[in-house]
Amino acid sequence: MSAEAIYDLHSHSSASDGILSPAALVSRAKSNNVTALALTDHDTVAGLAAAQEQARLEDLDLIPGIEFSTQWQGRGIHIVGLNIDPRARSIEKAVQLQTTRRARRAEDIADKLARMGVADALEGARRYAGEAAIGRPHFARFLLESGYVNNINQAFKRYLGAGKPGDVKQMWPEFDEVVAWIREAGGIAVLAHPCKYKMTRSKLCVMVQAFVDAGGRGIEVISGAQNPNQLRDITGIAHKFDLLASCGSDFHSPGQAWQELGRFGALPRDLKPVWEAFATAG
Ligand code: AMP
Ligand code: MN
Ligand code: MN
Ligand code: MN
């Protein structure tokens, strides 16, 4: 056993678009020597109780989290809430709202896919989602299974990714609302995977400023496997805006080495790790 603390503060279970059950996710984290894991399913806290239970059995620190879908200037942006009280009124209300929005959005996406010649996508996606709210990865798996695409990446490139018909995001709330939900639940709002939005540095800085103005306090300096330039750029932004530093794999499924649980480098030493603020969040 490793004596070193390893934090992985971004992961998904089958309660959203991950493949593993919450319990299996915790076990995998434990095998990978993760000592503190945040489960941050998309717009839901449904997996937290089972994850917490397994974490107790395996002596791992489970940090309750959630990843909210938001929009800023017409772009889909993700905000992670860490160390939230999942029973808080604001979270209950938020999950209810977002779940309703996801259900409507799934219908919209299916309609758009139908216009592109893809029939029965809603039923198809639902099969993959099971009990969970439908997300684009469930549509992607259906498109793959039905032979419309050869791999998941192609499903996003042709049908679901940024700028494609299946990229429906106008129902998502703005930063202020989402950050308020997280803060009311005693959590810390963290800007997720800043390098994934394909923005210029100046645009990213405008976005981060809006996030800070809304009460956001942290940024994912490390999100899965990253190149050194990205690490340097985001470290610079964390300093510039005096943000707490977070790190996480964004794990969804086994077999994706670039987002394996706990498998990423250490945070730069001159940044303040977000977990140091967990005890004092409010
Ligand atoms: P949604 O929550 O429905 O907006 O779907 C977003 C999710 O789709 C992300 O959290 C990823 O899990 C997944 N995703 C986004 N882009 C890609 C991509 N290019 N390839 C595979 N999965 C992706
Ligand atoms: Mn996802
Ligand atoms: Mn995300
Ligand atoms: Mn995620």
Describe the structure.
- The protein has 282 residues and is of the alpha/beta class.
- Helix content is 40%, strand content 15%.
- A seven-stranded mixed beta sheet has the order 1-2-3-4-5-6-7.
- The longest helix has 27 residues, at 89-115.
- The model has no long low-confidence stretch (mean pLDDT 96).
- The structure holds adenosine monophosphate and manganese (II) ion (MN) (3 copies).
- One manganese (II) ion binds at residues 67, 78, 192-193.
- The site of adenosine monophosphate has 11 residues, from helix 5 and helix 6.
Average pLDDT, rounded to a whole number, is 96
Low-pLDDT segments? none
Helix content: 25-40%
Strand order of the largest sheet: 1-2-3-4-5-6-7
How many strand segments?
A: 7
Shape: globular
What structural class do you assign from the helix and strand content?
alpha/beta
Beginning-to-end CA distance, first to last residue: 33 Å
This entry's quaternary arrangement is single chain
**Number of helical segments?**
9
Strand residue content? 5-15%
Biggest β-sheet description: 7 strands, mixed
What small-molecule ligands were found? adenosine monophosphate, manganese (II) ion
Order of helices and strands: EHEHEEHHHHHEHEHE
Radius of gyration: 18 Å
